[in-house]
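seq:
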Amino acid sequence: MDTSVIQSFIGIAMAGIAVLIVLVFRSYLANGSERRMRSMLESVGLDPAIAASNEIPTIMREVRQRCRTCNAEGVCERWLEGKEKGSNDFCPNAKVFEALHKYAKAA
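struct:
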């Protein structure tokens, strides 16, 4: 077999592996943000099942997007574990969660 064919095959395989690694990493990040989002919902007194319900899909889509792009993941993890004190003002969804909590109480 010609070495250029082997090198081409290796190059294609390496590119495929790189794409696979990126996809797995993105999935890992998405799962972490989903877990934190559900935990945050629960910690503010909301039912985490609301994330999967079709009651407020547009709001939850925006909440998920903010959670996925949040820069306060470490603070969030520590706060959810009880290692960080204070309110959840660091959370870009804090106001939305507060509004949902008020809405749930009123309903």
